Amino acid sequence: MSNHIDHLAPKPKLWGSCRLSVAFCVFFASVQMAMLRDNLGIALLCMSKPIGNLTCEPNDAIVPTLPWVDRKQNCEFEWDSATRGRILGSFLYGYISTTMVGGIISNNYGAKLPFMVAVYGNMIFHLLCPIAAQVHTEFFFACRFIQGMFAGLLAGPFFQLFSAWMSEDEASILLSFGFSGYAFGTILCYPMSGLLCDSNINGFGGWPLIFYVPATMSILFIFYWHRYLYDVPDNHPNISPEEYEYLLQNVGISEEPPVIPWLSIFTSLPFIAYILCYSAFLWNILTMMNIMPMFLQTMLGIQTSESGYLYCIPFILTFLTRNFNATTYTTVKNFSGLSHTVCRKLYCCFGCLMVIISLLSIIYEENITKLHVVVAISINLALGDFAYSGGFFPTLLDLAPNYAGLLSGVSTFIAFLVASPSTLVNSIVIKQNTKEEWNTVLWIIVAMFMFIMLFYLIFGSATLQLWSIGKLEVPERGTFRSTIYNASRNISTIRPTFIF
User: Fold this and answer.
1) Cβ(34)–Cβ(186) under 8 Å?
2) pLDDT at position 268, please?
3) Residue 481 pairs with which residues in a beta bridge?
4) How is residue 255 annotated by DSSP?
5) Left if phi > 0, otherwise alpha if psi is -120 to 50, otherwise beta: which for 302?
């Protein structure tokens, strides 16, 4: 044993490494996803005619479109609450239809293929949304649905990439940094959407720019992905020998069972606990992103532009919290002397309590103020993120690293299947925009989080599951196994990296 330890490769610096460049690829993809997904809540308020207590800011500016398409300015779309809820859910309906597809493709053919197809398709159909909306509401719905289908392909590649490029001691920081792009993208899109809604430069501007500008910005990321995204270390042309040896010795590798243990997967209580937490957090985050901007307008009379600025504050704090958890989790675990599983459970319970307390503060306060709402949502998203980035979310790589891409697709599919109806359910509940109706929306989330907190406390885990492995092994150079069919990671001959 001592002879083996003497030959362990030293840890290469993270800054400037291929490991960090792959994390940046995921970060930029998360930014793109957030910008192109989350701006619709503000866009609908800018596009639609006022309903009830809703307000809309007129704007005479226009964006040129096809000659035979009627141009619509701000506040000209006649969409009721049910239609808005259906449009908000269209992206999610498409998303859940391909999450498992992305996971299966990643495990069979590598993460880069579905990754690049996803980011290109997401961008192209987002650019088509303004024209589709002006032609017909159903075209707009279909365009967002197809956009969601492309975006859903990213669920599997994200975890598959990390499973090939992360050692255990770097998992928390790289995973949290990569997925913090969601918060960063939302930080950008909310104030930008409010600004673009009011924009009028020599008669040019208005709601279509809410779609065109972020999609155009994401084009810049494509150059980075082409340059730095590689499935596995063997395919990377610029990886140093030191970093390669470090990953070879420190990335968890094992021989998968010859048949995927589906029964064991779906009866695994730790995996079920993961899915339940993921589902509840998605329901919460989708409500906060899509419905709460309406709350600011209907209950507090805040205009679209101000709503965009106010609403980016919770996501700024979430971005900071996510990276704080990434850099401090290992230190906290080592200092406390607690096991990996116990630490994840404590983080998860703390975050769940913060979500519950923040929502109860809104429910039981009759004279709600702008400051109160912003503080409560900030606590909900920022401190609640302890349960996500510090708690259950990174444990997928601990439970079954061999099936990271596959299980990510499965869990994301189920979680979005559960959470996607949130926009429709909320729009059905909120008919008259009364405080009692809004309280019902928040009570649903409170009940969910009370349940998942207790369930994860009892059944959650961050230890390797025996059903995920056949036997542990020390692989030879160039035989990193990352797929469910034991395909080698050194696979440039069967899935060349120059495809994209």
Assistant:
1) yes
2) 93
3) 488
4) E
5) beta
Highest mean pLDDT among 105-109, 399-403, 440-444, 471-475: 440-444
Scanning 110-170, the segments in alpha helix (DSSP H) are 112-135, 137-152, 155-165
- Tens of pLDDT, residue by residue over 269-297, are 999 999 999 999 999 988 887 777 677 76
For residue 180, the surrounding DSSP H or E stretch is none
Beta strands at 471-472 and 204-205: parallel, antiparallel or unpaired: unpaired
Quick check: 418 and 357 in contact, CB under 8 A?
no
Please say whether the beta carbons of 284 and 449 come within 8 A: yes
Pairing of strands 254-255, 204-205: unpaired
Q: Residue for token digits 């993270």?
A: 14
Q: Distance between CA atoms of 479 and 489, rounded to whole angstroms?
A: 6
* Rounded-to-integer distance, Cα 429 and Cα 485, Å: 47
148-to-33, 108, 265, 326 alpha-carbon distances in Å = 10, 22, 26, 28
Please report the pLDDT score of residue 493 as a whole number: 27
168, burial (CB in 10 Å: exposed 0-12, middle 13-18, buried 19+): middle
**What is the reported pTM?**
0.74
What are the two backbone dihedrals, phi and then psi, of residue 62, each rounded to the nearest 5 degrees?
-135, 160
CA torsion, ordered 498, 26, 412, 152, to nearest 10 deg: -50
Q: Which of 167, 188, 161, 168 is nearest to 26 (CA)?
A: 161
Tokens representing residue 324 in the block = 């704080």
**Degrees (nearest 5) of the Cα angle 124, 421, 396?**
75
- In terms of Cβ atoms closer than 10 Å to its own Cβ (0-12, 13-18, 19+), residue 342 is middle
* Statement: residue 438 has pLDDT above 80: yes
**What pLDDT is attached to residue 3?**
46
| b (16+ CB within 10 A) / e for 173-202 | bbbbbbbbbbbbbbbbbbbbbbbbbbbeee
Q: Indicate the SS3 state at residue 415.
A: helix
Contact partners, residue 180, CB within 8 Å, separation at least 6: 27, 30, 319, 322, 323, 326, 389
What letter represents residue 163's amino acid? S
